[in-house]
Amino acid sequence: MSQRQYEILFIAEQNLGEPEVDTLTATVKGFIEKENGTVEKVEKWGKKRLAYTIGKNREGSYVLMIANAPGSAMAEVERRMRVTDGILRFLAIRIDAEMKKADRKKTIRGKKESTRRASVREKDRAFEGGAQ
Amino acid sequence: MSDMETPEFRGRSGEGRGPGGERGERGERKDKGAGGGKGGFFRRRKTCKLCSEKVDYVDYKNTKLLLAFIPERAKILPRRMFGTCAPCQRKVRTAILRARQMALIPYSTE
Fold first, then answer.
1. Where are the domains of chain A?
2. What is the model's pTM?
3. Of A84, A117, A129, B17, which is most buried with the most CB atoms under 10 A?
4. What percentage of chain B reaches a pLDDT higher than 90?
5. What burial class does residue B103 get, using C-beta atoms within 10 Å of its C-beta: 0-12 exposed, 13-18 middle, 19+ buried?
Protein backbone atom coordinates (compact mmCIF):
# COMPACT_ATOMS: atom_id res chain seq x y z
CA MET A 1 0.00 0.00 0.00
CA SER A 2 1.29 3.31 -0.88
CA GLN A 3 2.30 5.47 2.01
CA ARG A 4 1.23 9.05 2.08
CA GLN A 5 2.32 11.85 4.30
CA TYR A 6 -0.22 13.40 6.61
CA GLU A 7 -0.18 16.26 9.01
CA ILE A 8 -2.38 15.86 12.06
CA LEU A 9 -3.05 18.72 14.40
CA PHE A 10 -5.25 18.22 17.41
CA ILE A 11 -6.35 20.32 20.34
CA ALA A 12 -6.54 18.78 23.80
CA GLU A 13 -8.93 20.11 26.41
CA GLN A 14 -7.73 22.87 28.67
CA ASN A 15 -8.15 20.96 31.95
CA LEU A 16 -5.62 18.33 30.86
CA GLY A 17 -2.12 18.67 32.26
CA GLU A 18 1.04 18.05 30.34
CA PRO A 19 1.40 14.36 31.30
CA GLU A 20 -2.20 13.74 30.23
CA VAL A 21 -1.57 15.44 26.90
CA ASP A 22 1.48 13.22 26.49
CA THR A 23 -0.56 10.08 27.05
CA LEU A 24 -3.16 11.38 24.59
CA THR A 25 -0.39 11.91 22.04
CA ALA A 26 0.80 8.38 22.68
CA THR A 27 -2.68 6.96 22.09
CA VAL A 28 -3.02 8.83 18.80
CA LYS A 29 0.40 7.57 17.85
CA GLY A 30 -0.86 4.08 18.72
CA PHE A 31 -3.83 4.52 16.34
CA ILE A 32 -1.50 5.36 13.50
CA GLU A 33 0.95 2.57 14.19
CA LYS A 34 -1.84 0.02 14.48
CA GLU A 35 -2.80 0.82 10.88
CA ASN A 36 0.72 0.24 9.54
CA GLY A 37 1.67 3.88 9.71
CA THR A 38 4.72 5.58 11.16
CA VAL A 39 4.97 8.83 13.04
CA GLU A 40 7.76 10.98 11.72
CA LYS A 41 7.60 13.96 13.99
CA VAL A 42 5.68 15.14 17.04
CA GLU A 43 5.63 18.81 17.85
CA LYS A 44 4.06 20.12 21.04
CA TRP A 45 2.93 23.69 20.85
CA GLY A 46 1.80 23.78 24.44
CA LYS A 47 -1.20 25.60 25.77
CA LYS A 48 -2.52 28.31 23.48
CA ARG A 49 -5.45 30.65 23.68
CA LEU A 50 -8.15 29.64 21.24
CA ALA A 51 -9.46 32.23 18.82
CA TYR A 52 -12.97 31.40 20.06
CA THR A 53 -14.35 29.19 22.80
CA ILE A 54 -14.99 25.56 21.94
CA GLY A 55 -17.46 24.11 24.40
CA LYS A 56 -16.25 25.75 27.58
CA ASN A 57 -12.61 25.82 26.62
CA ARG A 58 -10.87 29.14 26.21
CA GLU A 59 -7.48 27.47 25.91
CA GLY A 60 -6.22 24.26 24.42
CA SER A 61 -3.03 22.28 24.07
CA TYR A 62 -2.00 21.91 20.47
CA VAL A 63 -0.08 18.89 19.25
CA LEU A 64 1.17 18.57 15.69
CA MET A 65 2.13 15.23 14.16
CA ILE A 66 3.57 14.31 10.84
CA ALA A 67 2.80 10.74 9.91
CA ASN A 68 3.30 8.39 7.00
CA ALA A 69 0.36 6.09 6.50
CA PRO A 70 -1.76 4.58 3.74
CA GLY A 71 -4.90 6.54 2.88
CA SER A 72 -7.28 3.83 4.01
CA ALA A 73 -5.67 3.85 7.45
CA MET A 74 -6.34 7.52 7.97
CA ALA A 75 -10.09 7.00 7.83
CA GLU A 76 -9.82 4.62 10.78
CA VAL A 77 -7.41 6.92 12.63
CA GLU A 78 -9.83 9.81 12.21
CA ARG A 79 -12.76 7.73 13.39
CA ARG A 80 -10.86 6.69 16.50
CA MET A 81 -9.77 10.26 17.20
CA ARG A 82 -13.34 11.40 16.97
CA VAL A 83 -14.41 9.07 19.77
CA THR A 84 -11.39 9.73 21.97
CA ASP A 85 -12.13 11.79 25.05
CA GLY A 86 -9.99 14.84 25.63
CA ILE A 87 -9.57 15.74 21.96
CA LEU A 88 -11.44 18.94 21.33
CA ARG A 89 -10.82 19.12 17.65
CA PHE A 90 -8.43 17.74 15.09
CA LEU A 91 -7.42 18.29 11.51
CA ALA A 92 -5.70 15.67 9.37
CA ILE A 93 -4.56 16.76 5.96
CA ARG A 94 -2.46 15.12 3.28
CA ILE A 95 0.65 17.17 2.62
CA ASP A 96 2.90 15.11 0.36
CA ALA A 97 1.34 16.33 -2.91
CA GLU A 98 1.43 19.97 -1.84
CA MET A 99 5.01 19.70 -0.64
CA LYS A 100 6.08 18.03 -3.87
CA LYS A 101 4.47 20.85 -5.84
CA ALA A 102 6.19 23.47 -3.71
CA ASP A 103 9.55 21.74 -4.11
CA ARG A 104 9.12 21.52 -7.86
CA LYS A 105 8.30 25.20 -8.04
CA LYS A 106 11.39 25.97 -6.03
CA THR A 107 13.66 23.93 -8.28
CA ILE A 108 12.16 25.44 -11.43
CA ARG A 109 12.71 28.90 -10.04
CA GLY A 110 16.31 27.99 -9.17
CA LYS A 111 16.90 26.79 -12.72
CA LYS A 112 15.35 29.91 -14.21
CA GLU A 113 17.55 32.11 -12.07
CA SER A 114 20.69 30.26 -13.12
CA THR A 115 19.81 30.31 -16.84
CA ARG A 116 19.01 34.00 -16.65
CA ARG A 117 22.35 34.67 -15.07
CA ALA A 118 24.06 32.52 -17.69
CA SER A 119 22.38 34.36 -20.54
CA VAL A 120 23.41 37.69 -19.06
CA ARG A 121 26.95 36.46 -18.78
CA GLU A 122 26.88 35.31 -22.41
CA LYS A 123 25.61 38.68 -23.54
CA ASP A 124 28.35 40.37 -21.57
CA ARG A 125 30.90 38.16 -23.22
CA ALA A 126 29.50 38.87 -26.68
CA PHE A 127 29.57 42.57 -25.95
CA GLU A 128 33.17 42.41 -24.83
CA GLY A 129 34.02 40.35 -27.91
CA GLY A 130 32.44 43.01 -30.13
CA ALA A 131 34.42 45.75 -28.40
CA GLN A 132 37.67 44.01 -29.06
CA MET B 1 -30.55 79.25 -36.92
CA SER B 2 -26.85 79.12 -36.30
CA ASP B 3 -27.15 81.70 -33.51
CA MET B 4 -29.71 79.51 -31.78
CA GLU B 5 -27.51 76.46 -31.93
CA THR B 6 -24.34 77.87 -30.47
CA PRO B 7 -25.57 78.61 -26.92
CA GLU B 8 -27.00 75.12 -26.71
CA PHE B 9 -23.73 73.66 -27.75
CA ARG B 10 -21.85 75.73 -25.18
CA GLY B 11 -24.23 74.60 -22.50
CA ARG B 12 -23.49 70.99 -23.26
CA SER B 13 -19.78 71.45 -23.27
CA GLY B 14 -20.04 73.25 -19.92
CA GLU B 15 -21.81 70.25 -18.44
CA GLY B 16 -19.16 68.04 -19.86
CA ARG B 17 -16.50 69.96 -17.99
CA GLY B 18 -18.15 69.33 -14.63
CA PRO B 19 -17.51 65.58 -14.35
CA GLY B 20 -14.15 66.11 -15.97
CA GLY B 21 -13.16 68.31 -13.06
CA GLU B 22 -14.39 65.77 -10.53
CA ARG B 23 -12.37 63.05 -12.09
CA GLY B 24 -9.18 64.38 -10.61
CA GLU B 25 -10.60 64.29 -7.08
CA ARG B 26 -11.78 60.73 -7.40
CA GLY B 27 -8.42 59.72 -8.71
CA GLU B 28 -6.77 61.10 -5.59
CA ARG B 29 -9.10 59.12 -3.38
CA LYS B 30 -8.09 55.94 -5.22
CA ASP B 31 -4.51 56.50 -4.21
CA LYS B 32 -5.47 56.36 -0.55
CA GLY B 33 -6.48 52.73 -1.10
CA ALA B 34 -10.30 52.98 -1.04
CA GLY B 35 -11.21 50.20 -3.50
CA GLY B 36 -14.42 49.73 -5.44
CA GLY B 37 -16.05 52.44 -7.55
CA LYS B 38 -16.69 52.38 -11.24
CA GLY B 39 -15.05 54.31 -13.97
CA GLY B 40 -12.09 54.24 -16.19
CA PHE B 41 -9.50 56.04 -14.11
CA PHE B 42 -5.96 54.98 -14.04
CA ARG B 43 -5.19 52.77 -11.11
CA ARG B 44 -1.86 51.31 -10.18
CA ARG B 45 -1.93 47.65 -11.00
CA LYS B 46 -1.85 45.49 -7.89
CA THR B 47 0.45 42.54 -8.00
CA CYS B 48 0.05 39.22 -6.28
CA LYS B 49 1.78 39.45 -2.94
CA LEU B 50 2.31 35.73 -2.61
CA CYS B 51 3.79 35.31 -6.07
CA SER B 52 6.19 38.20 -5.68
CA GLU B 53 7.31 37.01 -2.26
CA LYS B 54 7.63 33.47 -3.62
CA VAL B 55 5.46 31.68 -1.10
CA ASP B 56 5.12 28.17 -2.49
CA TYR B 57 3.00 26.61 0.20
CA VAL B 58 0.41 28.61 2.10
CA ASP B 59 0.43 26.99 5.50
CA TYR B 60 -2.68 27.22 7.66
CA LYS B 61 -0.42 27.27 10.72
CA ASN B 62 1.24 30.47 9.57
CA THR B 63 -1.25 32.82 11.19
CA LYS B 64 0.87 35.89 10.66
CA LEU B 65 0.60 35.51 6.90
CA LEU B 66 -3.11 34.71 6.94
CA LEU B 67 -4.03 37.61 9.22
CA ALA B 68 -2.81 39.94 6.50
CA PHE B 69 -5.77 38.76 4.41
CA ILE B 70 -8.44 39.28 7.04
CA PRO B 71 -9.19 42.77 8.29
CA GLU B 72 -10.72 43.54 11.68
CA ARG B 73 -14.07 41.91 10.92
CA ALA B 74 -12.21 38.69 10.16
CA LYS B 75 -13.74 38.35 6.72
CA ILE B 76 -11.62 37.03 3.91
CA LEU B 77 -10.62 39.94 1.71
CA PRO B 78 -11.79 39.63 -1.88
CA ARG B 79 -9.17 39.32 -4.55
CA ARG B 80 -9.88 42.74 -5.99
CA MET B 81 -8.79 44.35 -2.72
CA PHE B 82 -5.52 42.56 -2.48
CA GLY B 83 -4.62 41.79 -6.06
CA THR B 84 -3.78 38.16 -5.37
CA CYS B 85 -3.83 35.92 -8.40
CA ALA B 86 -6.49 33.22 -8.68
CA PRO B 87 -4.37 30.20 -7.65
CA CYS B 88 -2.89 32.11 -4.70
CA GLN B 89 -6.28 33.33 -3.53
CA ARG B 90 -7.54 29.74 -3.60
CA LYS B 91 -4.61 28.61 -1.48
CA VAL B 92 -5.18 31.45 0.97
CA ARG B 93 -8.86 30.61 1.19
CA THR B 94 -8.33 26.95 2.08
CA ALA B 95 -5.62 27.87 4.55
CA ILE B 96 -7.87 30.40 6.28
CA LEU B 97 -10.74 27.91 6.46
CA ARG B 98 -8.44 25.34 8.03
CA ALA B 99 -7.00 27.80 10.50
CA ARG B 100 -10.49 28.86 11.50
CA GLN B 101 -11.50 25.29 12.15
CA MET B 102 -8.53 24.82 14.44
CA ALA B 103 -9.29 28.04 16.35
CA LEU B 104 -6.06 29.67 15.24
CA ILE B 105 -8.00 32.49 13.56
CA PRO B 106 -11.42 33.80 14.60
CA TYR B 107 -14.48 33.23 12.42
CA SER B 108 -15.64 36.71 13.31
CA THR B 109 -14.83 39.36 15.85
CA GLU B 110 -17.36 40.84 18.24
1. 4-94, 101-132
2. 0.69
3. A84
4. 13
5. buried
Distance CA B34, CA B36 (A): 7
Query: What is the three-class DSSP state of A48?
Result: strand
Q: What ipTM was predicted for this assembly?
A: 0.76
Residue of B nearest to A8 (CA): B102
Report the alpha-carbon distance of residue A93 to residue B101 in Å, rounded. Answer: 13
Element spanning A43, H or E: strand A38-54
Average pLDDT score, chain A: 88
Residues of A in contact with B101 (CB under 8 A): 89, 91
Percent of chain B that is helix, strand, coil (3-state, to 5): 55, 0, 45
Which of A49, A40, A50 is CA-nearest to residue A6? A40
Question: What does the alpha-carbon distance between residue A100 and residue B56 come to, in Å, rounded to a whole number?
Answer: 10
Name residues whose C-beta falls within 8 Å of residue B69's C-beta, 6 or more positions apart in sequence.
Answer: B76, B77, B82, B84, B92, B96
Chain B residue nearest residue A90, CA to CA: B102
Coil/strand/helix, residue B74: coil
CATH for A4-94?
Answer: 3.30.70.60
Of B57, B102, B103, the CB nearest to A98: B57
Distance CA B83, CA B1 (A): 55
Kindly give, in sequence order, each residue whose CB lies less than 8 Å from that of residue A129, ignoring residues fewer than 6 positions away: none
Looking at residue A67, its amino acid is A
